[in-house]
Amino acid sequence: MTGGKDLSNGIRRNDRLMADGRTIRYYDTADQKRNAPDLRPVEEQAGIGELRLDPLVNEWVVVAAHRQGRVFLPPKELCPLCPTTGELLTEIPERDFEVVVFDNRSPSLRPPTGDWALPDQIGPDTDIGTAAGKCEVICFTADHGKSFKDLTPARVRTLLEAWVDRTEELSHEPFIEHIALFENRGEEVGVTLSHPHSQIYAYSYLPPRVEKMLGVAKAHKEVNGRILFDEILAREIRDEERIIARNDRWIAFVPYASRYPFEIHVAPLNPVADLATLSEADRDAFPEIALEVMKRLDGVFGIEMAYVATWHQAPVRTGRDVLRLHWQITSVRRAPGKLKYLAGSESAMGAFIMDMRPEQSAAQLREVKL
Which residues form the Galactose-1-phosphate uridyl transferase C-terminal domain (predicted)? Predict the structure, then answer.
């Protein structure tokens, strides 16, 4: 499959086929021609994994045994996310790129074949299902040594447009129920490829945290007639002491009951359900606050902070009237040389205990000199 698509802000998407049949999508701002072929030998793609129900908590668990052999912390000269150069044939055939999105080579979730349905939940006797969904990789710079905070505002805007485009397109797949986009940085949070990139997991079911957030939001609306996240945002604006950055379209704050030493939520002041429903004005104003937040995070201790940055958005087909889009950035770094480990209470019980007040971490983030 090849083709193109004009997006907003002068960004164009060009699609190419990879050697094994996967699709790579180039997002460009200068009308670049993307014709480089994937010269790697054809490899058989991994099969679809299993979907099993944990009946103790009624949560789905994906079993993807084929991922055991995936690439693990390769040296820079063998990085599969760098551009193709010389004898190094990578996932990106071109010698340079702005933003690219391609189907994951070792996906936890993949599109099903034929008719597909989530198994009925009937406790221990629930059938094994297939792990339907989609996993994609998003590379937002060709420079192996850079990170999100080093991007130009124009590149962040292109990256955001790629996120928007993928959310919109994946939402039309009948087997997709929820789309999560996230970036992991740092070995402390389990990164296995150090080239700066983010990922998309498009699930065929609602992940546990989404189900819980949806249930709480619906109950709040039924009782109060108001949207929970809107009230949370109003309190943060009223309290003011946990706000770390804002512009006329976005606000960034440390939540009142944060679970990590450094946790930041970034939300549009004009509430929307997902990335695809952001206005042009919101998209244009995002790079400014996104870069400020990431620079403040790294500036707290003057070192690169390991983090997980996740877009929370409403599911594809439910809860779109009660859940709000926001970007959550969490770091387990509590001091230079010290991490907040998720030990017994957090890992086994799901009960988080914080060693520092959210107001303290908000003050540290505000005090960073940019």
Answer: 221-368
Q: What is the pTM of this model?
A: 0.96
pLDDT of the chain, 370 residues: tens digit per residue: 577 899 999 999 999 999 999 999 999 999 899 999 999 999 888 889 999 999 999 999 999 987 776 777 788 899 999 999 988 999 999 999 999 999 999 999 999 999 999 999 999 999 999 999 999 999 999 999 899 999 999 999 999 999 999 999 999 999 999 999 999 998 888 888 889 999 999 999 999 999 999 999 999 999 999 999 999 999 999 999 999 999 999 999 999 999 999 999 999 999 999 999 999 999 999 999 999 999 999 999 999 999 999 999 999 999 999 999 999 999 999 989 888 888 899 889 999 998 889 999 999 999 999 9
Q: What does the block give as tokens for 52?
A: 């099993």
Count of C-beta atoms within a 10 Å radius of residue 198: 23
Burial class (CB in 10 A: 0-12, 13-18, 19+), 86: exposed
Q: CA gyration radius for the chain?
A: 21
> Beta 99-103 vs 133-139: how paired, if at all?
antiparallel
Rounded CA separation 227/140 (Å): 34
**CA proximity to 362, closest of 254, 220, 277:** 254
Contact 310/180 with Cβ under 8 angstroms? yes
Q: Give the active site residue among 197, 265, 312, 326.
A: 197
Would residue 197 show up in a list of annotated catalytic residues for this protein?
Answer: yes
Distance CA 329, CA 125 (A): 38
Tell me the domains of the chain and their CATH numbers: 3-205 (3.30.428.10), 210-366 (3.30.428.10)
